[in-house]
Write a structure and sequence with these properties.
Length: 594
């Protein structure tokens, strides 16, 4: 086994940690430096080793840049218009002062979807202080409830940068990351609330004065936007993106590209063609089919008895036996990402669908897209014997429409327009003042985009170095049972180590998902790769201490000492991470989504 890629990985991580932790270099510079170094050490044409880093950076920025920039604008508008304040007051009014910690947790949970964690904490801490002045108790519980709600969605639910980049690295859509992220985050948030209550009893920490400036008085209710208008910038993109995911999943479940009995115009001629082409001395698609059939049959001994060889299920087959062969052919051949190889199709004139899909990165295609590609290859190989499949079913047409309006970029743009309109009307801002708000938001968002895209370039170079393939060989995964659990634990541990070492959850998520990108295949894992992402996100919560900006935000804004923050914030995030890991394991086991 070649351990060279693991050495390259070690060099890359050492550069990231050394520059960030030891030399205090900006994370963007550290990640780009590591990406270029890894690229130089990885195989490939020497003339392309630096240019491919720039190309990967551009690709990553193109996939997440618009969403992060628009999320920054939405967050700023919600804060300035009072929409965020209205959401908090809604939770408090709904649950009452007695259940104020639940209200604070719910507020942090919702607001951290479009607003970054530090901003959410800045927003809600004054409310925690106000509640303490009324009740004279539970100050730490209020702070930890805010932190639990904000931190858990920050690491699990897009459009925050970490989850967004994990979905891109692991090759699945943002909508699935939202759905799975929320399913994992909810029980973890409950655990966080329980810990907040216990910690509030164990540590009687008083509220201390923070800074020299007087705390601002809250705005009266009549100066805040209505509740539904306040919620719309948060709910609209989540609803549109999630609806797109649901409709696409329903369309994929039809398996419109699978081979059916009526699709073959002449079964005897089809059988003869497969037999003859599989026996050719030169490479042919039929040989590829036969090899995939044999390999996958060996991995599926319960079904291989119906057809020990590629054509055994067709020779003199009854309709029932032919149906068994078709089922196995669809599963073993048409769903394989290894079907297409140019040498086996050099004599075949590919149809437009096959040409378009074959040019894409096969590792990142969804199973339905893989099946569509392979069916298009089959249609191209035997155009007179196999009818072209009909892809545009009624479900697929609905999914295509939802793919337009549910695209994350468009959904966030619509949300941004709404947030800007609300801000302009609520505060009476001129066009110039509104432009200033947008500019300030984009300046802060630009830094996040640079760091995230730099991490994407680093991840792409790790892929060029074949790091993921080596990790897969190292663990000799067979794709089921304990092996699937192994990779959940591996993702969690990798992210934890990275978080403890350099402090940033976002960097831990980006780097961890890049390292494990090559194994993000549902057939290999036994569950949807979104669960691998939530395991990495869970690990990125664990080990927050003095090198984490979130640690200092919690300590300084809350008026806590470093020791008090270690005993409260650090332990809280440990419980959140472990609870998220537990929820991930249970959901992957009982709701694998494959």
């Amino acid at each position: 086994m070649d351990y060279g890629p693991l050495v390259i990985l070690g060099v890359g991580i050492a550069i990231v940690l050394g520059l960030i932790v030891v030399l205090r270099v900006n994370a963007f510079i550290a990640l780009i430096t590591a990406a270029m170094t890894v690229s130089l050490l990885a195989p490939g044409d020497i003339s392309q080793k630096i240019s491919r880093v720039a190309a990967a950076f551009g690709s990553a920025a193109g996939s997440i840049g618009i969403v992060i920039a628009l999320a920054a604008v939405i967050g700023k508008c919600m804060l300035d218009s009072g929409a965020a304040d209205r959401i908090v007051r809604m939770f408090l009014k709904l649950l009452g002062e007695k259940h104020a910690p639940v209200a604070l947790l719910g507020s942090g949970f919702v607001l951290a979807v479009p607003v970054f964690f530090d901003t959410v904490f800045y927003l809600l801490v004054p409310l925690a202080r106000s509640l303490y002045r009324k009740t004279g108790k539970l100050y730490l519980k209020y702070l930890l409830a805010i932190a639990a709600g904000g931190a858990i969605t920050h690491t699990l639910v897009p459009p925050t940068p970490g989850p967004l980049m994990m979905a891109a690295n692991l090759g699945f859509d943002v909508g699935m990351m939202i759905i799975v992220g929320i399913m994992v985050a909810l029980p973890a948030a409950v655990v966080g609330l329980i810990f907040a209550g216990l910690a509030g009893r164990w540590m009687d920490i008083p509220m201390r004065r923070v800074g020299s400036e007087p705390e601002p008085e809250p705005l009266p209710d009549e100066e805040l936007p209505s509740l539904w208008v306040s919620l719309l910038p948060v709910i609209l993109p989540v609803l549109l993106i999630s609806t797109n995911t649901v409709l696409s999943t329903m369309a994929d479940a039809e398996r419109a590209a699978s081979l059916r009995e009526a699709d073959v115009t002449d079964w005897p001629a089809f059988t003869t063609a497969l037999r003859n082409d599989a026996a050719l001395a030169t490479p042919h698609a039929a040989q590829r089919m036969q090899s995939l059939w044999t390999e996958n049959a060996a991995e599926d001994p319960e079904e291989s008895g119906d057809a020990q060889e590629f054509l055994a299920g067709l020779e003199g087959a009854t309709p029932e036996q032919r149906g068994i062969w078709l089922t196995q052919f669809n599963d073993r051949v048409l769903l394989s990402k290894r079907f297409y190889s140019p040498e086996f199709f050099q004599e075949v004139e590919l149809n437009p669908v096959a040409t378009e899909l074959a040019a894409k990165d096969l590792a990142r295609l969804k199973p339905a897209e893989v099946e569509r590609l392979n069916r298009a290859l089959l249609d191209s190989t035997y155009p007179e014997l196999v009818r072209a499949h009909e892809w545009q079913t009624s479900r697929r047409q609905l999914a295509d429409i939802s793919a337009l309006v549910g695209n994350a970029n468009l959904a966030l743009l619509l949300s941004t327009v709404i947030a800007l309109i609300v801000l302009a009307r609520q505060r009476g801002l001129s066009r110039g003042a509104l432009a200033d708000v947008v500019e300030q938001s984009l300046m802060s968002g630009g830094v996040i985009i640079l760091i995230t895209a730099g991490g994407g370039a680093f991840g792409a170079m790790l892929k060029e170095a074949r790091v993921g393939d080596t990790i897969q060989q190292l663990f000799e995964v067979e794709g089921s049972g304990s092996s699937g659990l192994l990779f959940i634990l591996l993702g969690f541990l990798v992210a934890t180590v990275l978080k403890v070492a350099q402090g940033s959850s976002t960097v831990a998520m980006i780097t961890g998902s890049a390292m494990l990108a090559s194994i993000a295949d549902p057939a290999l894992l036994g569950y949807h790769p979104a669960y691998l992402a939530t395991a990495i996100g869970a690990g990125s919560l664990v080990g927050s201490w003095m090198n984490d900006s979130g640690f200092w935000i919690f300590a300084k804004m809350g008026g806590l000492t470093e020791t008090e923050a270690l005993k409260s914030w650090t332990i809280l995030l440990l419980f959140l991470g472990l609870a998220s890991l537990g929820a991930t394991i249970l959901l992957a086991r009982w709701l694998p989504l494959v």
